[in-house]
Amino acid sequence: MDGNKSFWDRNTKHYDRFMRKDAAAYMRMYALLRPVVKAKTVLELATGTGLIAKHIVNAAAHIEATDTSAKMIAEAKRDNRSAKLHFSVQDMFCLPYADKSFDVVIVSNALHIVLQPEKALAEIRRVLKDDGLLIAPTFTHAENSFSGRVKAFFMKLAGLPLHSRWTSGEYLNFLRQNGWTVRKSAVLKASFPLTYAECVKSEV
Known about the structure:
Layout lengths: L1 H9 L1 H9 L2 H15 L3 E5 L5 H6 L5 E6 L2 H9 L6 E5 L12 E6 L9 H11 E8 L2 E2 L6 H12 L10 H10 L2 E9 L5 E8 L3
C-alpha cells in the first residue's frame, strides 16, 4: 500500500478537480447509494477527500470513512459538517473494527489499484454483518475507449498504481470468485467505464 499512499499524498490537492469531470456519473452513484445506506451503519474504505461519504451521510445513521493517506483524510476533515461522519486513517487490509460491525461497506475505485484485492475483500467480509451489503464501484479499464487508454497510460506514467485491468464482466466474476453474490450491477458512463456493484455474502 505504500506506493498507493505516496501517490495519493502527492495528488491530494488535485483529487477533487480530477473527480469533477465525472460529476454526472457520481451523481447517479449517489442516487443509487442513498436508499441502500438509509438508517444504516456504514464503513467507507479509500474515501479520498470524502466526496461520496459527504454526499450520502444525511441518509445514513453513521459513516466511518477511512483512507490510507493521511493527507487525504486531513483534507476530508477540513469541511466535514456532519456529526454522523467520522474520518480516520486506516489500512483496508487490517481494520481495527470488530467482526460484523457494519451494515454496509463501500469501497469505490480502489480494488483495481491494490496489489491484493482479494485480501481486501476478505477483510471487508470480516467486518460486514452476515446480512450486510458490499458496494464496490470500480473503474473497469479493460473496456477503455482509445482516448481512455491514452488517459490511463499517462496516469500510469504519473504513478497511478493500476494493478488490475478488468472488463465489467471480469470484475463481476472476480467478486463472485471471492465469496460474493452480485445483487445489482450497472456500468456508469465516466472518463473510464465505472462498474457499480452491490453484493451480499455468498453461502459458504
